């Protein structure tokens, strides 16, 4: 028994001295409980919406007061023309537009009914359905309050229109997300072990004495995975179109170019991990925790980013998959051109350059 307790004490000492193990054992459960308990939720709050009020009377003012008081909506813009509706959806500034017709109060008083149009961005069908339900509930409550004050029954009808995905197919939402996740996993994890494998196999010395520059060595390591990833991209797109019936409404060349750019971003991150780690196991662990979990939780694919606390929203800006997910949805589902995704493209390009320079710098230091 004494020997057994001695071994137990020894294991405690090992765990206590290993900071990474201590972090996984003690800090990770706390972080996961906080993230999953408070931050990650499918409930939609503070959703960006726009109002197209063509009446501007007391009745629409009362209804808009009810909508703006709701915690579910954040009114981003008041539109003045019918053409602005399409533009605000393409810019991504609103997920739903509430259209109030002209002569709203007059129709309500003389015809006893009026129609309110709810237009939602159904490229994310779950969020669109939730917002429509929230808005319909607010309008019903407003209608009930009007009925309490009037002897003549007033009826406010809602007409729903789903843009980009009228059939509310779930594939329209998960194809861009799965595409980002697959490319991130394959590219980052595979390249993360490439240089580390050379170290573990003892072939790093051959590379160290070669006259090849670090940039060429790093590039040569990434090229095979880039070509294989292009095959993956083509396979995913073919399956999406011909098996899942998800059309490519935008420019296929632009979509391929954006996908290749995202692939290079992932390859650069994998090379950076590979350059700073000493074992394949460590490289795999870092790539999983550094890319897979943030891609699932913070890209907006599974949980709306707008609902997260501000610190997590800020962190999500550093996740490449968040920007690629928006690009694929915009080009593939909404049919936007480069003018609609230029900001995301520049961010991905900047991340790629930064990570690639970082990987080359770390590799060069080791050569020295």
What does this structure look like?
This protein has 368 residues and is α/β, with parallel strands linked by helices. It is built from 15 helices and 5 strands. The chain has a 5-stranded mixed beta sheet, with helices on both faces. α6 links the parallel β4 and β5. α3 crosses α6 and α7 packs antiparallel against α12. The protein starts with a helix and ends with a helix.
Short characterization:
The chain crosses the membrane at residues 21-40, 171-196, 225-246, 252-276, 283-303, 341-360. The chain is an alpha/beta fold and 368 residues long. It has helices at residues 2-17, 19-39, 58-69, 83-91, 104-110, 125-149, 171-192, 194-201, 204-209, 214-242, 252-276, 280-298, 310-316, 320-333, 338-367, and strands spanning 47-53, 73-78, 96-100, 113-121, 155-163.
Q: Major sheet, described briefly?
A: 5 strands, mixed
How do the strands of the widest beta sheet line up side by side? 2-1-3-4-5
Please work out how many helical segments DSSP would assign. Answer: 15
- Share in β-strands: 5-15%
**Mean pLDDT reading:** 83
Helix content: 55-70%
Order of helices and strands: HHEHEHEHEHEHHHHHHHHH
Shape: elongated
SS-derived structural category:
alpha/beta
Q: Report the end-to-end length measured between terminal Cα atoms.
A: 52 Å
By DSSP, the count of extended strands is: 5
Task: Please tell me how large the radius of gyration is.
Answer: 26 Å
Which stretches are poorly predicted, pLDDT < 50 over at least 5 residues?
A: none
């Amino acid at each position: 028994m004494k020997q057994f307790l001695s071994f137990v004490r020894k294991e405690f000492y090992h765990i206590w001295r290993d900071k990474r193990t201590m972090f996984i054992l003690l800090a990770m459960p706390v972080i996961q409980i906080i993230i999953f308990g408070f931050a990650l939720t499918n409930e939609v709050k503070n959703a960006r919406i726009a109002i197209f009020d063509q009446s501007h009377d007391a009745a629409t003012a009362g209804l808009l007061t009810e909508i703006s008081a709701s915690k579910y909506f954040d009114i981003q813009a008041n539109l003045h023309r019918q053409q602005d509706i399409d533009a605000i959806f393409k810019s991504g500034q609103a997920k739903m537009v509430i259209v109030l017709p002209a002569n709203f109060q007059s129709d309500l008083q003389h015809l006893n009914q009026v129609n309110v149009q709810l237009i939602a961005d159904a490229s994310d069908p779950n969020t669109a359905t939730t917002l429509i339900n929230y808005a319909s509930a607010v309008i019903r409550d407003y209608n009930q309050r009007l009925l309490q004050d009037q002897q003549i029954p007033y009826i406010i009808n809602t007409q729903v229109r789903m843009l980009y995905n009228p059939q509310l197919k779930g594939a329209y939402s998960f194809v861009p997300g799965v595409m980002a996740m697959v490319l991130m996993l394959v590219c980052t994890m595979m390249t993360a072990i490439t240089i580390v494998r050379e170290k573990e196999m003892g072939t790093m010395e051959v590379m160290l004495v070669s006259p090849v520059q670090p940039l060429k060595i790093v590039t040569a390591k990434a090229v095979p995975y880039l070509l294989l990833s292009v095959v993956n991209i083509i396979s995913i797109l073919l399956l999406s179109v011909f098996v899942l019936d998800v059309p490519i409404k935008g420019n296929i060349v632009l979509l391929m170019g954006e996908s290749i750019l995202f692939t290079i971003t992932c390859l650069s991150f994998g090379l950076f991990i590979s350059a700073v780690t000493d074992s394949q196991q460590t490289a795999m662990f870092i790539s999983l925790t550094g890319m897979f979990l943030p891609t699932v939780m913070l890209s907006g694919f599974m949980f709306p980013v707008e609902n997260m606390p501000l610190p997590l929203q800020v962190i999500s800006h550093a996740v490449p998959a968040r920007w690629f997910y928006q690009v694929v949805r915009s080009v593939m589902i909404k049919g936007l051109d480069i003018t609609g995704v230029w900001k995301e493209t520049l961010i991905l390009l900047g991340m790629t350059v930064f990570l690639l320079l970082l990987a080359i710098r770390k590799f060069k230091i080791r050569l020295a």
